[in-house]
Amino acid sequence: MAQRLALQRLLSLRARGSLASHGRAFGTSAGRRSTFNVQDGSDFQDRVVNSPTPVVVDFHAQWCGPCKILGPRLEKLVSKLEGKVLMAKVDIDDHTDLAIEYEVSAVPTVLAMKNGDVVDKFVGIKDEDQLEAFLKKLIGA
After folding, report:
1. Do 86 and 56 contact (CB within 8 A), yes or no?
2. Domain 35-139 CATH superfamily
3. Full strand arrangement of the beta sheet holding 86-91
């Protein structure tokens, strides 16, 4: 019963335009629009490989301590770039196929992708200055 009420409320909010029209994100801040969780291989193809905008791909895991530090740090810097770069988050436990395809052997692993190609990569945690340099190199700033 509670689930039914929650679903009805969600649908009524969407009908009134209170939710994003594409149905994948609820937030409206620039940080939320520029960062997204990959849903499956097809979603990765559409939103990362086929993206006209450079994409940083954060391969992470829920159990990974360094991932919990790096992820928010990277999200913050990506949101500051206001759409010049996107951030895709890939949980390796949910998307093992993508982790294997992109040769992820440790987490966190971060790929920089441009026009569907991996142009840069790092493994492990980085400080904000290093992340900023990584992103600037990707966007050519």
Report:
1. yes
2. Glutaredoxin (3.40.30.10)
3. 35-37, 86-91, 55-60, 109-114, 117-123
The answer to whether 67 is a known catalytic residue is yes
Q: Among residues 26, 17, 135, which one has the least CA distance to residue 82?
A: 135
Q: Return the closest-CA partner of residue 37 out of 59, 64, 54.
A: 59
Question: Annotated catalytic residue: which of 48, 56, 57, 64?
Answer: 64
C-alpha torsion sign, points 60, 81, 27, 52: negative
- Separation in Å, CA 131 to CA 59, 61, 137: 15, 19, 10
Identity (one letter) of the amino acid at 96? T
pTM to 2 decimals?
Answer: 0.77
Q: Which amino acid is at 3?
A: Q
**Domain locations along the chain:** 35-139
Residue where the block lists tokens 């790092």: 122
* Mean pLDDT, the chain cut into blocks of 10 residues (141 residues total): 46 42 40 84 97 98 97 96 96 97 97 97 96 96 65
Catalytic residue among 38, 48, 67, 92: 67
Q: Is 64 a catalytic residue?
A: yes
